[in-house]
């Protein structure tokens, strides 16, 4: 595990920590918020509901994992409407997370990544007409899985709210399955 933390730091994450596995509580209420479709991705992406599986299906999938890592990218906005900073920080976080997952898979090939936000690997997702073009590089978001990210962060010792005019992106990787 120590190597994963060093790797996360080398890649550029501002903070990484051991994921508190007991904080992974997959809630139907979070998925209900997804169904409201305020982000316009519900039913339009393999990484979002309903394609990513129900909270019960995801809970069953992650149940065998015994540890994980959570990572954070922080952006400092000029003001609360600094969309350029938000977009730039999200791209930076996604690129860092892709690198972390790719390198982590060398040591933990069965790892289970949960990203921040919708997958943006393709200009237009193939869901639901065709299979995902990159199923090994498409990760559901923590929210899409039904997690309250703020609670997972708090339980894992990662600050989620970092002050006025900041934007925070969080992702995690479950590493080892029980044998």
Describe this structure in words.
The protein has six helices and four strands. The chain has 179 residues and is an alpha+beta fold. The protein has a four-stranded antiparallel beta sheet with strand order 1-2-4-3, with helices on both faces. It is globular. The relative contact order is 0.25.
Q: Largest sheet, if any?
A: 4 strands, antiparallel
**Unreliable sequence segments:** none
Q: What structural class do helix, strand and pairing data support?
A: alpha+beta
Strand residue content: 15-25%
* Strand line-up across the major sheet: 1-2-4-3
Order of helices and strands: HEHHEHEHHE
| Alpha plus pi helix count | 6
N-C termini distance: 17 Å
Tell me how many strands there are.
4
Any idea what the shape is? globular
Level of helix content?
25-40%
Summarize model confidence as the mean pLDDT.
93
* CA-atom Rg in angstroms: 16 Å
Main traits of this protein?
179 residues; alpha+beta; 4-stranded antiparallel beta sheet; 6 helices; 4 strands; 34% helix; 17% strand
List the helices and strands and how they pair.
Blueprint: H1 2-11, E1 15-18, H2 28-35, H3 55-62, E2 65-76, H4 83-104, E3 112-114, H5 142-145, H6 149-156, E4 166-177
Helix pairs in contact: 1-4
What's the quick description here?
With 179 residues, this protein is α+β, with helices and mostly antiparallel strands.
């Amino acid at each position: 595990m120590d190597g994963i933390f060093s790797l996360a730091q080398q890649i550029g994450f501002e903070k990484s920590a051991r994921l508190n596995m007991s904080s992974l509580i997959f809630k139907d209420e979070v998925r209900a918020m997804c169904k409201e479709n305020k982000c316009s991705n519900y039913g339009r992406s393999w990484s979002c509901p309903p394609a990513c599986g129900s909270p019960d299906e995801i809970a069953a999938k992650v149940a065998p994992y015994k540890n994980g890592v959570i990572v954070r990218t922080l952006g400092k906005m000029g003001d609360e409407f600094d969309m350029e900073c938000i977009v730039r920080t999200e791209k930076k976080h996604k690129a860092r997370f892709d690198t972390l997952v790719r390198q982590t898979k060398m040591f933990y090939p069965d790892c289970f990544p949960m990203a921040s936000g919708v997958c943006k690997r393709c200009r237009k997702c193939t869901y639901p007409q065709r299979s995902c073009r990159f199923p090994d590089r498409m990760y559901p978001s923590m929210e899409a899985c039904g997690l309250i990210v703020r609670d997972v962060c708090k339980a894992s010792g990662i600050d989620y709210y970092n002050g006025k005019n900041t934007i925070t992106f969080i992702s995690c990787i479950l590493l080892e399955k029980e044998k």
